[in-house]
Design goal:
This protein has about 600 residues and is an alpha/beta fold. Helices cover about 65% and strands about 10% of the residues. It contains 21 helices and 12 strands. It has helices at about 15-25, 30-60, 65-115, 120-125, 125-170, 170-195, 200-220, 220-225, 230-255, 255-280, 285-330, 390-395, 420-425, 440-445, 450-460, 465-470, 485-500, 515-530, 565-570, 575-585, 585-590, and strands spanning about 5, 330, 350-355, 365-370, 375-380, 405-410, 410, 425-430, 505-510, 535-540, 550-555, 560-565. Strands 8-9-10-5-11-12 form a 6-stranded mixed beta sheet, with helices on both faces. It has a 4-stranded antiparallel beta sheet with strand order 4-3-6-7, with helices on one face. The structure holds adenosine-5'-triphosphate (ATP) and magnesium ion. The site of adenosine-5'-triphosphate has 12 residues, from α12.
Length: about 600
C-alpha cells in the first residue's frame, strides 16, 4: 500500500528547499536566466534615470538654459522611454519562458510520478484532486518562478536605487523616503493578509463545486435514467449558494487593498509636499528636486505594492511546494525486481499460500495455493465478490499479496521488472477502457511498431471486419469518448489488443459477458487459437465459456472451494462442479 514518508513534509518549506528547487529547475536554463537578470537591471537603471532627466530639464529651464540643452534633454528622455519599453518587452519574454519551462518540467515529473504510483494510491485520490496537484499547484509555482525573482529582486533593487539616489540628493529626503517605504510595506502587508484571508476558503469551495460538476457530468446517463436530475440541480444550487456566501466577503475584503494603497500614498505625497516646502524655503533644494521627489514617490509605489504582494505569493507558493513535495515523497511500493528469466512459451503459474487484503485486516483471498501447468487453461468460477478479479490483479502486480508468493515458471513474479511481467500477460477485462484516439491507437495502445496488416487480420479473425470496413477513415478513424461502439464491440477491441501482443499467459475476466451467443461462438474459434501454446485463466459466470478448460477452480469467499481436472470433476457426481453442471451455474453461484 502506498505510504507517506512525511517526517518533513508537514514542516515549513525551508530556505534550503527553495534554493534547491530554484537550482534544479532554473539550472538547466542558465542562459535565459542570465538574460532575464541583465534586462531586469537595465530596465531598473533606465527607470531611475527618467525622473532625473525631467528634474534636470525643469532646473535648466528655470535657470534660463539654452533651447539646445533643453532639446537634448527632451530627446534623451524620449530615447530612454523607447529603450525602456523594448527592454521591458524582452524581459517579460524571458521571464515567462523561464517560468513555463521550469513548471512544465515539474508537471511532467509529477504526472509521471502519479502514473507510476500504486493502484491503492489512485483508489484513494480522485482524478480531480490529482489534476489540482499536477496543474493547479504547479500553476501557482509558474507565477512564482517567472515573476517572483523579477518582482522581488527587481523591486528591491529599484527601491534601494530610489532611496540611494535620494540620499545623494539630500540626506533628509533619503531618510524620509526610507522610513516611508518600510512603514508602507508593513502596512500593506497587514491589509493584504486581511484582504486575502477569505480566498483560501473560496478556492476550496470552488474545488468542491468542480468536483461535483465533474462527477455528475460523467454520470449524466445514469442520473437522467434514474430521474435524479432535480436532486442534482438542487445540490448544484446549494453549492452555488455556498460559493456566494464565501466569495462575497472574499471580494469585498479583496477590494480593501486599493483604497488602503491610495490612502498610504496620499500620506506619502503629503510628506513630500511638506518636506519640499521646508527644504525649498531653506534654499536647500531646487524646484527640479521637488519634482524628483514627487516622481520617485510615484516610482516607489510599484516596489512597495509588489513586495507586499510577493510576500503573499511566497506563502502561496510555499503551500504548493509543500503539497508537491508530499506527493513526490509518496513512494511506490510495487517496484521493479532485478529482472527474471521467464522461460519462453507458455508459463506455469503457481500460487503459494497467498493471502491478500485491500484494506488491512479484511482479507479477500485466504491462503490460496494452486498450480496451473504451462499451456493449460484454468476455468475460474465463483460468486460475485469471491475474489476472481483480485487474482488477476495480483498476477499483474497491481497489488502485492501480504503473504505468500506467486510464481511464473518457478520464479517469483517480484523478481521480474514490471515491464517484463506486464508484457508477458495479456488480459481482457470486465471493463474496457477506450481512449479518445484513433481506432489504431485504441487497439495497439499507442504501439507504433505494429503493422496495419496485422491489425486488420486480427479484426477479421474476431469478426470485426465488417465493422472496420464501415469506418470512414479506416484505422485512423477517431473514437469519440465512450461513443461509437457498443459494449460488445468494445470488448472485441480489447480482445484484439491481446491478440496483437504475444503474451505467455492470457487472462479473460468475464471477457465474453457482453457478447451475444452468436458473436461469442464466432470468437470462440479465434480465442481457441489465441490460447494455443499459452497458459490461460478464464474467469466466467457462464459454464459455456469454460467447457474447454483443463482445470477448474471454484472460489468461495476467497477460499478455494474446489480445484481439480475438469474431466475428473465432471465425472465425480459429488463435486461442486458436476452439481453446477446439473443445476446450472447461474442458480448455484448467483
Ligand atoms: P465479480 O464476479 O463480481 O467480478 P470478483 O470475484 O471478481 O467478483 P473481486 O473484484 O475480486 O470479485 O472482489 C473481491 C472482494 O474484494 C469483494 O468483496 C470486493 O468488495 C473487494 N474489492 C474489490 N476491489 C476492491 C478495492 N479496490 N478496494 C477494496 N476492496 C475491493
Ligand atoms: Mg470480477
Amino acid at each position: 500500500m502506498a505510504t507517506q514518508t512525511s517526517t518533513e513534509s508537514n514542516n515549513k518549506v525551508t530556505l534550503r528547499q527553495y534554493v534547491e528547487l530554484f537550482a534544479s529547475t532554473l539550472g538547466p536554463q542558465k542562459g535565459r536566466v542570465i538574460w532575464m537578470f541583465l534586462l531586469l537591471l537595465t530596465g531598473i537603471g533606465l527607470q531611475l534615470m527618467m525622473p532625473q532627466l525631467i528634474s534636470r530639464y525643469i532646473d535648466t529651464a528655470e535657470t534660463g538654459g539654452t533651447v539646445r540643452t533643453l532639446s537634448w534633454i527632451a530627446g534623451g528622455f524620449i530615447a530612454i522611454t523607447v529603450v525602456n519599453q523594448v527592454v521591458h518587452l524582452f524581459g517579460t519574454y524571458f521571464s515567462e519562458n523561464v517560468g513555463w519551462s521550469a513548471t512544465n518540467k515539474l508537471r511532467v515529473e509529477l504526472a509521471l510520478h502519479a502514473l507510476r504510483l500504486d493502484m491503492s494510491f489512485h483508489k484513494e485520490h480522485s482524478s480531480g484532486a490529482m489534476i489540482e496537484r499536477v496543474d493547479g499547484d504547479v500553476l501557482n509555482l509558474a507565477n512564482f518562478f517567472s515573476k517572483f525573482i523579477v518582482h522581488v529582486f527587481g523591486n528591491i533593487v529599484l527601491l534601494i536605487g530610489i532611496i540611494a539616489v535620494l540620499f545623494v540628493e539630500n540626506i533628509w529626503i533619503g531618510s524620509v523616503f526610507a522610513a516611508f517605504a518600510v512603514v508602507a510595506m508593513f502596512a500593506l502587508h497587514l491589509v493584504r493578509e486581511f484582504a486575502m484571508s477569505h480566498w483560501a476558503k473560496a478556492r476550496q469551495t470552488n474545488a468542491e463545486l468542480f468536483g461535483f460538476l465533474g462527477e455528475r457530468m460523467t454520470g449524466a446517463e445514469d442520473i437522467r435514467a434514474n430521474g435524479a436530475v432535480p436532486y442534482t440541480m438542487r445540490r448544484l444550487h446549494q453549492l452555488l449558494y455556498k460559493l456566494l456566501l464565501v466569495e462575497r466577503p472574499a471580494h469585498v475584503r479583496g477590494h480593501s487593498i486599493w483604497p488602503a494603497t491610495m490612502l498610504l500614498f496620499g500620506v506619502g505625497y503629503l510628506l513630500v509636499f511638506a518636506l519640499g516646502f521646508w527644504l525649498y524655503g531653506d534654499h536647500a533644494i531646487t524646484i527640479g528636486t521637488i519634482y524628483l521627489m514627487f516622481s520617485y514617490m510615484e516610482n516607489l509605489r510599484t516596489p512597495v505594492e509588489r513586495l507586499s504582494q510577493q510576500l503573499q505569493e511566497l506563502q502561496k507558493a510555499g503551500a504548493s511546494i509543500r503539497r508537491i513535495r508530499q506527493l513526490l515523497a509518496i513512494k511506490q511500493e510495487i517496484v521493479d525486481g532485478p529482472g527474471a528469466n521467464f522461460p519462453a512459451g507458455a508459463l506455469e503459474v503457481a500460487f503459494d499460500n497467498v493471502t491478500f487484503a485491500y484494506a488491512q485486516d479484511t482479507p479477500v483471498l485466504h491462503n490460496l495455493t494452486f498450480t496451473l501447468e504451462k499451456g493449460k487453461v484454468l476455468g475460474l468460477l465463483g460468486r460475485t465478490g469471491s475474489g476472481k478479479t483480485t487474482i488477476s490483479r495480483l498476477l499483474f502486480r497491481l497489488y502485492d499479496p501480504q503473504q505468500g508468493a506467486i510464481r511464473f515458471g518457478g520464479q517469483d513474479i517480484k523478481a521480474a521488472t514490471l515491464h517484463q511481467l506486464r508484457t508477458s500477460i495479456g488480459i481482457v477485462t470486465q471493463e474496457v477502457r477506450l481512449f479518445q484516439a484513433s481506432v489504431r491507437d485504441n487497439i495497439t495502445l499507442f504501439d507504433r511498431t505494429i503493422a496495419d496488416e496485422k491489425i486488420k487480420a486480427v479484426l477479421d479473425d474476431l469478426g470485426l471486419g465488417d465493422w472496420y470496413r464501415t469506418l470512414p477513415n479506416g484505422l485512423d478513424t477517431e473514437l469519440t469518448l465512450g461513443g461509437g461502439l457498443s459494449a460488445g464491440q468494445a470488448q472485441l477491441l480489447s480482445f484484439a489488443r491481446v491478440f496483437l501482443r504475444d503474451p505467455q499467459l492470457v487472462i479473460l475476466d468475464e471477457a465474453s459477458s457482453r457478447l451475444d451467443p452468436l458473436t461469442e461462438r464466432l470468437i470462440d474459434k479465434a480465442v481457441a487459437r489465441l490460447l494455443q501454446d499459452r497458459t490461460a485463466i478464464i474467469i466466467a459466470h457462464r459454464l459455456q465459456t469454460i467447457q474447454e478448460a483443463d482445470d477448474i477452480l471454484i472460489l468461495d469467499g476467497g477460499h478455494i472451494a474446489e480445484h481439480g481436472r475438469r474431466e475428473e470433476l465432471e465425472r465425480d457426481p459429488h463435486s461442486r462442479y458436476s452439481q453446477l453442471l446439473q443445476t446450472g451455474l447461474e442458480e448455484v453461484l448467483t
